[in-house]
Amino acid sequence: MLTQAPRGTKDVLPAESYRWQFLEKKMREAAALAGYREVRTPVFEHTELFLRGVGDTTDIVQKEMYTFRDKGDRSITLKPEGTAGAVRCFLEHNLYADALPCKMYYLNAPIFRYENPQSGRLREHHQFGLECFGAKEATADAELILLAYRLLQDLGIKNLSVEINSIGCPSCRPVYHTRLKEYLGGKLSQMCETCRERFERNPLRVLDCKEKKCQELTKDAPSMLDLLCDECRGHFDQLKSCLEQAGIPYRVNSRIVRGLDYYTKTVFELVTETKDGKLTVCGGGRYDNLVGQIGEQDIPAVGFGMGLERVLMLLDADGIVLPKPPQYDVFVTFMGAHGLRAFALVQQLRAGGIRADLDHCGRSLKAQFKYANKTGAPLTAVIGDEEAAGGTVKLKNMAGGEERTVPVSEVCGAVRNMIG
User: Fold this and answer.
1) Looking at the chain, which residues constitute the CATH 3.30.930.10 domain(s)?
2) Are 87 and 301 in contact (CB under 8 A)?
């Protein structure tokens, strides 16, 4: 067990990390274009934050949280999602006192959920999330959908579609709950145990059940869209107009409710078709009441979360190869007693911003070249007796075989010239 990662976790190996770095770079660029700045919150929070924010009727709170008591007998929970922590940070540091909206994102943030590990879903996974506080207009919702859609499209993910819904607000949702309960009442005995539990506490979540039998029983359930108040309907119409203006194809899906209790009005998912069926790549929505539930300020907000592991999995499924940079720009080889000169040359190259290394394992010159080739270094720098005596370095292009002997003082410029 000492040499095996816990179930539901996964190592990112040095040979694979470039893929994560490429994806993270694209995500940071996409967020920056829309004015979102990075926030970093703790990996764990007080359990009460998630009980109050995420909702005690959710599967996350009931079944999936990693919760423990610390040495001070405080109940602590590893983050099962990113929004509640972002809200806590927003309130604790009085960010609402600054000019709004406050736009923040988190990246490579570890999320912990105790659930059965499966393809694209781990007990520890990582999210790219955006949160926008203080913007009540549907233009903010549309901005996030467009940002996520264009990011995934630019990465090359195929068969991408946008699905949207409105689940109303505290003014109109109670009427829908009553109507939904009337519809479900006669079918409840045939439904799964989870749905029977949800029926009283949050009947809307019944529509989110993944059991095929429950989905069949609720296929003709009344739609929240028919019972929206004027404010929610106007907001949803504005969202659709924004997406149409931007040329983003979307589908209204009244079955989307998301798995968290804090959502109001807009909920959305970005979905792609795979050989195993539909897969949600990104999900989010509006949570206008969450800030008030956690603190005392009544501030509208909207956001989304996107799993990095799931995006990488889809890139693999679509055969999209991310560019792999070489480990080094130049690998310094040396003969005999010239190791100290090679060491000094590596430091000179690194000081010039060039990725460089030398042999640290006592290999022969032939083995050094073989190792340099394995690293993918486009150039080697050779220091032999002749080069040491003349204060020069022989640079060799590993692909084309071109060789050039240059003074040590000019080596950085020569390397840049040869690698373009």
Assistant:
1) 17-172+228-317
2) yes
